[in-house]
Amino acid sequence: MDLTHRPRRLRRDGVRGLVSETSLEPSDLIAPVFVDATTDERVPIESMPGHERVPVDESVARVEEVLETGVEAIMLFGVPESKDPEGTRAWAEDGVVQEATRRITDETDAYVITDVCLCEYTDHGHCGPLEEELRGEIDHEHGSACDPTLTVDNDAALESLERIAVSHAEAGADMVAPSGMMDGMVAAIREALDREGFEHVPIMSYAAKYESAFYGPFRDAADGAPAFGDRRHYQMDPANAREARREVALDAEQGADVLMVKPALPYLDIVSLVRREFDHPVAAYNVSGEYAMLHAAAEKGWLDLEAVAHESLLSIKRAGADLILTYFAEDVARSLERGR
Ligand code: PBG
Question: Is the model's pLDDT at 145 over the cut of 60?
């Protein structure tokens, strides 16, 4: 047996760190924060231990907690006080995300990214107005709005997304992140932002967002589950990888500044593909289900939570992500600081 090559030589203490290829930093992480206009106290999110929906009045305090861990950026999600078929509260000047953004950017140094979507704001829970609703074909009294074949009007949704993005920028958002998977959304938002004098505001596109069952806990948290049907008419089919390259290329052509893949762990092949094929910064969203499953196993004593959280984020970076959106941001940043 030829043992000239012994990889174990480089695994000893002292040298292991020198040859380590990937590292995690708190500055790689973005912490999601939920602001809720329906409550005046902090409400824990049961399926996402350690996370809460906070009223606007608590938004600054919540973000300060994040900043204390060393994480510098947040992704803001809102739960509005009321919903309607078109999701009009999503672009209201006094909307929940707009108010919170104003306060957070006035009072903290956090880099504020806002989720630009309609599903938390429409009463049917889809990511844009429904074609049939706009054509007056829905019989609300008899509940035919539950027909799973109903679908979102892509181009009408674009107009709403433009309004939302501009209203977030006006409130002070540092970056906007459209997550609705509407065709043409990046171009529409880029044009609207430029027209209104927000050329400096970058767009992080949820470029390859899959129709995933891993979003379950988030939909409870943000109250954004579709009231009927699912999102397979607009989010990507988990079976497809080549399609991801096409989707991402379109967003890149339309001016996306950062390209995101979502979810992260079940889609590391896609993270790696986007890393190889594009020069843009690549983001990956380690979603609510990825967080919840590790917590659930740790609660049973089956996994070491701190270790699996770190290993998960390291894998996502190794696959090619520059930035990671994760509910583990604060915990992992704290443990990184402790380890220094
Ligand atoms: C849509 C949106 C979703 C998530 C982020 N933005 C939910 C969806 O597409 O149904 C999911 C995030 C997560 O699961 O952590 N606004």
Answer: no
Rounded to two decimals, the pTM is 0.95
Tell me, yes or no, if 300 is annotated catalytic.
no
- Beta strand 43-44 with 52-54: parallel, antiparallel or unpaired? antiparallel
Q: What's the 219 CA to ligand 1 centre distance in angstroms?
A: 7
| Candidate of 79, 113, 116, 179 to mutate for ligand 1, largest count of ligand atoms within 8 Å of Cβ | 179
Query: Which residue of the set 83, 209, 300, 317 is catalytic?
Result: 209
Architecture of domain 22-338: Alpha-Beta Barrel (3.20)
pLDDT digits (tens, 9 = 90+) for 249-287: 999 999 999 999 999 999 999 999 999 999 999 999 999
**Closest atom of ligand 1 to CA, residue 235:** 9
Q: pLDDT tens, 32-87?
A: 999 999 999 999 999 999 999 999 999 999 999 999 999 999 999 999 999 999 99
Tell me how far apart the alpha carbons of residues 147 and 283 are, in angstroms, rounded to a whole number: 35
Compute the distance between CA of residue 106 and CA of residue 93 in angstroms, rounded to an integer.
16
The domain segmentation of the chain, as residue ranges, is 22-338
Share of the chain above pLDDT 90, in %: 84
209 part of the active site: yes
Nearest CA to ligand 1 atom 6: 179
- CB-ligand 1 contact for 115 (6 Å cutoff): yes
Label residues 153-174 b or e (16+ Cβ within 10 Å = b): bbebbbbbbbbbbbbbbbbbbb
